[in-house]
Amino acid sequence: MLEISRTVESAAAAKDEYVYHHDPGHGWLEVCTAELIRLGIEGDITPYSYRGTGGLSVRYGFDDLSYLEEDCDMAVFCDAKRALGEDVKREYRYTEDTPIRQLPSYSI
């Protein structure tokens, strides 16, 4: 299990708007990995998602981001947030050739 500082936990807990990256073939929701841990779902995310920064936005003030694939992992995340009464708003960003596909597969 990753150790998380109180600052990271606070940043993860405060988010309700997320960037949804998509290209011509697929989409990924950008979330702070610490938030996956806070929600207790870090072990439920599949290797079809990605982890890292890939030169993309670093909205949280640190680099440990996960990109949850749209078919399964994004729903796991959204369901966990909604179960706690937390909202999930999306800001859509389209890119023809996203660097997300070059990131390492998600793993904890």
Structure write-up:
The protein has a five-stranded mixed sheet with strand order 3-4-2-1-5. Helix 1 crosses helix 2 (33-39). Mean pLDDT is 84; it is low at 1-8. Strand 1 and strand 2 form a beta hairpin. By secondary structure, the chain is α+β, with helices and mostly antiparallel strands. The protein has three helices and five strands; from the N terminus they run H-E-E-H-E-E-H-E. The chain has helices at 6-14, 33-39, 73-83, and strands at residues 17-22, 27-32, 50-51, 65-69, 89-94. Helix content is 25%, strand content 23%. It has one domain (6-102).
Key attributes of the depicted protein:
108 residues; alpha+beta; five-stranded mixed beta sheet; globular; disordered N terminus
